[in-house]
Structures are given as structure tokens and as C-alpha cells.
Write a structure and sequence with these properties.
Shape: globular
Bound molecules: NADP nicotinamide-adenine-dinucleotide phosphate
CATH topology: TIM Barrel
Pfam family, one: Aldo_ket_red
Oligomer: single chain
Number of helices: 10
Distance between the termini: 45 Å
Domain NADP-dependent oxidoreductase: 24-262
Family: Belongs to the aldo/keto reductase family.
Largest sheet: 8 strands, parallel
Order of helices and strands: EEEHEHEHEHEHEHEHHEHH
CATH superfamily: NADP-dependent oxidoreductase domain
Radius of gyration: 18 Å
Keywords: NADP, Oxidoreductase
Protein name: Aldo/keto reductase
Length: 265
């Protein structure tokens, strides 16, 4: 049996004051008992952040893990997401999420996709209301371009606190990262491993230099960029390995070499 990590996961403070772990557990496409078991194992290993969504149809399974674990609710950062087809039903969808999760609040509520490619200002106003009422601690978006972040700010006066998107060295965008930093938005990385080229020599050589694996290098690279990453695994040894990235540091040259793997722009 593997052991929980003694080193705490680094965190970031969001614009509204909430503290978010920089490494979280991705739950898609896990469902039912498999999802509950995986989340319980992840919590046992030291994860304190769980990424779910209405779309994943596993919020009840996440809720079951939250009920079964001995870790207090306030120590676990729970993210869920509003599907783009729930425009006009934001509050009802949030209430359904809270009920399925068996919790009075979520730590982070994201707009999963820009609804119909638009910024979704109407939904965003509902997000602001939900945060004011304490039903969600922080609010953000997913799969948004910078121009859509700016449109939300223009139309509602508020930027998202988090912008989650597909993000790995292959998708690295200095422009996106800098624009988010300038706007006080924390970048979140989804599909960090699935969307990467794990056999890229830059990655494998960097991993070798640190006695680490390519997946650990990617997760460490995210953490050093201040990006909140949510790798998923159904395997306990991989869950642990994905969390165990604080015992080595990537040099500036190594960070730059990984950034240069970007195939964007
Ligand atoms: N906002 C969005 O639109 C959006 C979209 C996609 C995903 N997400 C979120 O992001 C999370 C992660 O993304 P993802 O699930 O697409 O992909 P991912 O976490 O990048 O990769 C998961 C895949 O990598 C494997 N894996 C995990 N750890 C590994 C390791 N140490 N070594 C080798 N293989 C490893 C997993 O296999 P095993 O499970 O077999 O170990 C699984 O096949 C999702 O679970 C979800 O919470 C959000």
C-alpha cells in the first residue's frame, strides 16, 4: 500500500480570496462506485481538490466520497461546472449540483464552455449572485479565449477568478498566461497529460535528469507556472506519482525548453 505524501500541495490565492490547491484530482470519465473509490483513494493520498462537472454525471459519486471521507469538507476544494446548455437554468443547475454533492457550497463553479461561443454574460451575472450568496466560494470559466474574458469584464464588471483550458507543453501560450496574470485570472489546466506528447525527448530527458517521470515533469511545470492542474488517474500508484512533484525543481532553462514545445501560434 502506498503512503500519503507528507509534503503539502502548493496553493494559489484567487482574486476573491479563496485558496485553491495547484494540484487537483480530475474525475472525468469516472462514474459511480469507481469514481467514489478513486476519489477516496486520491483524498487518502493527499489530494485536497476534486474537479467534477454537471456534464460528467458523477457529482453524486463525488458526493458519496465527500460523505465517506474523514477529511473535513472545508479542507477539500470542490470544483463543478455549468454546462453551456443550462443558460437560463443556472440557479436550478447549481442547486442540483449542491444536492448531488451533498454540500452547502462549492469552492469553484466554472462555466464549462462559452455558451454558443458567446461570453455568456447572463450566466455570469448568476455566477456573481451565487458567490454573493455564499453558494460558491469562487467563480470562473473554462475553454474561454482572452477576448471572451474581456467581454465578460466589459459586460458585467468582473473577470473570472479562474480560466481552465486544455493545457500542456504542446498547448503552452505565453500570451494567454500573461494576459490572465495581468487580469488577475488563475489559469487551470485540464487534460494536462492526455494532451501532451509524453515521449517528447525534451520531456523524457528532463524527467531523467530529476529521477522523475514525464508526467511528473508536466505537473511540476504547471505548478511552477502557477497553473492549477487536475490530472486524472484510476490507478493509485499514478495518483500518488502525479501528486509527488514537490521534491524536484525545474530550472529556468528547463522551463523555457518545455514552453518551447508549444505547437500554438
Ligand atoms: N473543463 C473542461 O472542458 C475539461 C475537459 C477535459 C477534462 N477536464 C478535467 O480535467 C481532468 C483531466 O483531464 P483528462 O482526464 O482529460 O486527462 P489527463 O488527466 O490529462 O489524462 C488522463 C489519462 O492519463 C493517464 N494517466 C494519468 N496519470 C498517469 C501517469 N502518471 N502515467 C501515465 N498515464 C497516466 C490516465 O490513465 P489511468 O486513469 O488509466 O491511470 C488517463 O488515461 C478531467 O478528469 C476533468 O476533471 C475538464
Amino acid at each position: 500500500m502506498t503512503q500519503a505524501l507528507s509534503t503539502a500541495t502548493p496553493t494559489v490565492t484567487l482574486a476573491g480570496g479563496a485558496t485553491m490547491p495547484l494540484i487537483g484530482f480530475g474525475t472525468h470519465p469516472l462514474r459511480g462506485q469507481e469514481a467514489t473509490d478513486a476519489i477516496l483513494q486520491a483524498l487518502d493520498l493527499g489530494y485536497r481538490s476534486v474537479d467534477t462537472a454537471t456534464r460528467y454525471q458523477n457529482q453524486d459519486a463525488v458526493g458519496e466520497a465527500l460523505r465517506q471521507t474523514s477529511i473535513p469538507r472545508e479542507e477539500i476544494f470542490v470544483t463543478t461546472k455549468l454546462p453551456p446548455d443550462a443558460v437560463g437554468f443556472e440557479r436550478k443547475t447549481l442547486e442540483q449540483s449542491l444536492e448531488a454533492l451533498g454540500t452547502q457550497y462549492v469552492d469553484l463553479w466554472l462555466m464549462h464552455w462559452p455558451p454558443g461561443g458567446s461570453p455568456g454574460a447572463g450566466s455570469w451575472r448568476e455566477f456573481l449572485r451565487a458567490r454573493e450568496e455564499g453558494l460558491v466560494r469562487a467563480i470562473g470559466v473554462s475553454n474561454y479565449q482572452i477576448r471572451l474574458l474581456d467581454a465578460l469584464k466589459r459586460e458585467t464588471g468582473e473577470y473570472p477568478e479562474v480560466a481552465q483550458l486544455q493545457w500542456s507543453p504542446v498547448h503552452f501560450s505565453e500570451r494567454y498566461l500573461t494576459a490572465c496574470r495581468e487580469r488577475g485570472v488563475v489559469v487551470g489546466a485540464h487534460s494536462p497529460l492526455r494532451s501532451a506528447r509524453l515521449d517528447d525527448p525534451v520531456l523524457t530527458e528532463t524527467a531523467q535528469a530529476h529521477g522523475a517521470t514525464p508526467t511528473q515533469v508536466i505537473i511540476r511545470w504547471d505548478v511552477q507556472h502557477g497553473v492549477a492542474v487536475v490530472p486524472k488517474s484510476a490507478h493509485r500508484d499514478r495518483m500518488l506519482s502525479n501528486l509527488d512533484v514537490m521534491r524536484f525543481t525545474l530550472s529556468e532553462d528547463e522551463m523555457n525548453a518545455l514552453d518551447a514545445l508549444s505547437e500554438l501560434e
